[in-house]
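Bug report

Summary: structure tokens for Selenoprotein W-related protein differ between web form and batch submission.
Environment: batch mode, default settings.
Steps: 1) Submit the sequence below via batch. 2) Compare with the web form result.

Sequence submitted:
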Amino acid sequence: MITITYCVPCDYLPRALWQAGELLRPLAESVSGLTLVPGTGGVYDVALGDTTLFSKAEEGRFPEVGELLEAAFKLLN
């Protein structure tokens, strides 16, 4: 399961929706689903199962789709 936690007050939903689609295209047959989780405080985290693929708080920026896919494929294979 992919989980994208995004900040509602920051209006990160459009980015979360876009990245959800970009992740599901190549990963749809490898994951059980994708969940969007509303949050606050500037959060933008992407996880696969219990493993965090990316945290905006740690990196200080938003993730690129390519780096998310690379990290996901490493975990799945």
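Above is the batch result. After comparison, the two runs are identical; trailing whitespace caused the diff. The chain has one domain: 2-76. The chain has a mean pLDDT of 97.
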